[in-house]
Amino acid sequence: MLNIDYLKVKAMIHTRDHQTPYLFDPWDYLGPKRKMLLSESWAGLFREHILPALPVHKLARFFTEDFGRPTKELYASLGSLILQQMHDLTDEETVSQFSFNIQWHYALDIPGESDESKYLSPKTLWKLRHLVTKEKLDVELFNQTTETLAKAFHVDTTKQRLDSVHIRSNMRRLGRIGIFSQSIHTFLINLKRRHSEIFETIEKELVDRYLTEKAMSCFSLVKPSESGKTLEMVARDLFALVRRFRDHEEVKSLHSYNTLLRVLKDQCCVTEEKDDQPAGVEVKSPKEVSSASLQNPSDPDAGYSGHKGQGYQAQVMETYCDSDDESLRAKTLNLITHVEVESACIGDVHALIPALDSTKERELAPTELLADSLYGSDDNCERAQEMGVEVISPAMGTPKANTLNLSDFQQSETGVITACPQGHAPVKTRSGKKQKHGVAFSSEHCNVCPCKGQCPVKAGKKNHYLHYDIKAMRIANRRAMEYSPEFKEKYRWRSGIEATFSEMDKKTGVKRLRVRGLSAVAYFARLKAIAVNIFRATAVRKALGLPGEVLAAAKSGIRYIIFVFKEQFLKPMRLLANIFTPATDQPRYELKIAA
Fold first, then answer.
1. How far is Cα 547 from Cα 191, in angstroms, rounded to an integer?
2. Judging by DSSP bridges, how do beta strands 69-70 and 268-271 pair with one another?
3. Per-residue pLDDT for 186 more than 70?
4. What's the mean pLDDT in 231-256?
5. Does residue 550 lie in a domain region?
6. CA 575 → CA 567, 571, 584, distances in Å?
7. Residue 187: pLDDT band by 50, 70, 90 thresholds?
8. What percentage of the chain's residues is helix, strand, coil (to nearest 5)?
9. Which of the chain's ends, N or C, has fewer CB atoms near its CB within 10 Å?
10. How far, in Å, are 73, 336, 352, 477, 542 from residue 152 at the CA level?
11. Does 26 share its domain with 74?
12. Could you tell me the residue range of the domain that residue 330 belongs to?
């Protein structure tokens, strides 16, 4: 575990100013062509926009100013965390790139050649990553870089789209037998390490069943016909261990014992002692097991989705350009504005409002949002409308075929029915509590109506009646809008976010991570989203033909004075000298005059 107090005492903060230009450019030795390649690549964009905006000040409180050995330069160190996820590297590969890759040196502004400048130990990288994860500075990193790119490229955030992508952490997929056996195995190992005298009291048969490698491997080779008996056996063993140590305070404090309790609650039904009958345990049927149940003892935060499987999901929101002009789309930055990671068992319906709140706080909120039907519940659409956002999403469910629905009735602006599909006004209208309404139509009209078999109006004693509420009316109207050309034209751009997920996976490997746990997965996902934004911004800058940092670097210190002197004084003087001769005042070089 990272000891932050240790960092406060032993490490002295070391940062450099990356905004003031150099007096003499340390990259001149590369020559103009190689330097131009660096400037126009992602390294130039990172150096120009991302590096100076890194929230290093958030780390300052963990270090001292005048005591201890200086840290590695924090801007370069923090930037290396982003570059690691940008290229999907291990710690060893990151150290190698930090030490020898000239693109990394240029992006992180490391001109020196000493080990102090261009070497980063794996331990330093690990400590910094854990500090960022523990303090949730990955959120600050994502927010700061997103806002920086949004301002630099004048991103229009009024139109955005939202969807989720499934993420698998570095855990093995276990069946129900595997969850039981692995939980017991981990508990026995921890008990043996911490309380060996208590461990010695456990039956040898139980220990041999779950601690020997040969016995554990047998659980993965259970025949389907014997899986039921094996599942009952491991459930009884787990229940026996829970009952045995339920009053033992030292054992109850173990994390692995709490894992046993969770598995018992998730997978079993326990019957308490009654009269002469002892307590018992019964395994739940698969349908009774919650999707939030433990999937693997090594990753307790992971959940289960019936659609995508075990793991996590990242809610991603991004801007988009709705123009059919390919050249215009190439010059528009589709910026990822929101990333939130959660267990795979959580429904998408809960993600929309937090995403809008997050972007609104950073002044990146949309006014029009595309999302699929899971996000577009009536409550979400109403709350989003109060926030000034129009949610364009299909309504959940499908209407019955060959039947009329509420949208076929004529209605007022407030959603009250004023006439039936045939144009007949109701004879009675009644409004109740909770926005519930009722209308009565004359039986004289309804009995001879050609739509009688398709109409939701039901016959009563005196008239025909229809009861509905405003929510049902809103959903019916939304469902009717789905068939309009305007809706189809707008909604067709929603599928573009699937290309974003493909890009994130191919370039950064976001769908299969090397870590476990919600905080670590969230850290990786956010920094990989930053990487995608950087790749996209680099492509947009090339499409726009914007100059990189080469020209900006030339405008620094004495070099800027020389640059101005050449451009403003010497060049016009040479031009005049070449155009006119002192004797004849006639052009000297026809080609230069034409130029």
1. 63
2. unpaired
3. yes
4. 92
5. no
6. 11, 6, 17
7. very high
8. 50, 15, 35
9. N
10. 25, 15, 27, 41, 14
11. yes
12. 313-394+489-542
